[in-house]
């Protein structure tokens, strides 16, 4: 909408901890492969760090598939977090309420 008509943002999701996606691993696999899990998480976080530093490139990558203007997707990319975050007890509690 911001591209079509002038709007005033009354509320946004800043400082709201959204869960987003998450990774699950079987306890046995994680226990038997701690180095592999560590490397996977480090590399996934590096991708997230790159995405946060390159919102235009992220937007260009998704624009053809989503059929949205790059400038719109760039705004979306600038507003979100791509890096990994640990799931906290608060997050788990919110999941139970949902």
UniProtKB/TrEMBL annotation:
It comes from the Bacteria. This is Aliphatic sulfonates ABC transporter substrate-binding protein. It comes from Nostoc commune NIES-4072.
